[in-house]
């Protein structure tokens, strides 16, 4: 990915400038800043960013709405920033399509590192790869996954999860392994994150998400993509 474009929506001008400077120091120069939902949405359509960094609480509402708008047309990584520290707030952000949730106060450098990590993974998934066919699923370039010939509308993390399962069909994969492969971080505190994304993925590929036949839970061990062996 050359010169990635970052959409930063933050209404605190000093914090937005601090993040811009820190991202610049980390080699990320194209930072597009908005301070409201309306400005953020307009910038998203005008700029077509490669990643979005969204403060949750904004003057004209919560950026969860902007996340939903972005997810209608894009699979770019979305990182939320918020002073809300309750677990339920984090789960809401992840459940509606976010890829990461950073609690305030935070280290600007940590934010920059997380942005770079998500961009690296996004760059990897855009590298041409051999098509993979497993059961009703076909994965092309690790960015597009089809089920019975129909393109699945997945977030970046959902693509990462399903791609991980498709590379190891009928094998148990632990939550720790999934988190480390898809999020690129140590598993500490990642249990609920994996569960939320698995649930959302099931809603998109299962006829009955409450009784999944593809992504099954192996109690105490993890998850398994069940498909007929060739």
TrEMBL record:
It comes from Metalysinibacillus jejuensis. GO terms for cellular component: cytosol; protein-DNA complex. Transmembrane segments: none annotated. Pfam families: Response_reg, Trans_reg_C. One of its GO terms (biological process) is regulation of DNA-templated transcription. It comes from the Bacteria. Keywords: DNA-binding, Phosphoprotein, Transcription, Transcription regulation, Two-component regulatory system. InterPro entries: CheY-like_superfamily, OmpR/PhoB-type_DNA-bd, Sig_transdc_resp-reg_C-effctor, Sig_transdc_resp-reg_receiver, WalR-like, WH-like_DNA-bd_sf. One of its GO terms (molecular function) is transcription cis-regulatory region binding. The keyword Transcription regulation applies. Residues 129-227 bind DNA. Residues 129-227 form the OmpR/PhoB-type domain. This is Response regulator transcription factor. The lineage of its organism: Bacteria, Bacillati, Bacillota, Bacilli, Bacillales. The modification 4-aspartylphosphate is found at residue 55. It is found in: Cytoplasm. CDD domains: REC_OmpR, trans_reg_C. Its main location: cytoplasm.
């Amino acid at each position: 990915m050359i010169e990635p474009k970052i959409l930063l929506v933050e209404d605190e001008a000093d914090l937005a400038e601090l993040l811009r400077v820190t991202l610049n120091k980390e080699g990320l120069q194209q930072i597009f800043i908005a301070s409201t939902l309306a400005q953020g949405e307009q910038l998203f359509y005008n700029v077509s960013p490669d990643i979005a960094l969204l403060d949750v609480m904004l003057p004209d509402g919560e950026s969860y709405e902007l996340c939903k708008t972005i997810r209608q047309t894009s699979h770019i990584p979305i990182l939320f920033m918020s002073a809300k520290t309750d677990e339920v707030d984090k789960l809401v952000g992840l459940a509606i399509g976010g890829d990461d949730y950073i609690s305030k106060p935070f280290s600007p450098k940590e934010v920059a590192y997380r942005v770079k990590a998500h961009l690296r993974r996004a760059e990897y998934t855009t590298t041409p790869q051999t098509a993979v066919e497993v059961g009703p699923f076909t994965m092309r370039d690790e960015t597009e996954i089809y089920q019975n010939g129909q393109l699945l509308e997945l977030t970046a993390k959902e693509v990462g999860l399903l791609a991980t399962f498709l590379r190891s069909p009928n094998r148990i994969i632990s939550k720790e392994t999934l988190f480390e492969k898809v999020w690129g971080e140590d598993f500490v505190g990642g249990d609920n994150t994996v569960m939320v994304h698995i649930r959302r993925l099931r809603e998109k590929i299962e006829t009955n998400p409450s009784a999944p036949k593809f992504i099954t839970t192996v109690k105490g061990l993890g998850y398994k993509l069940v498909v007929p062996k060739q």
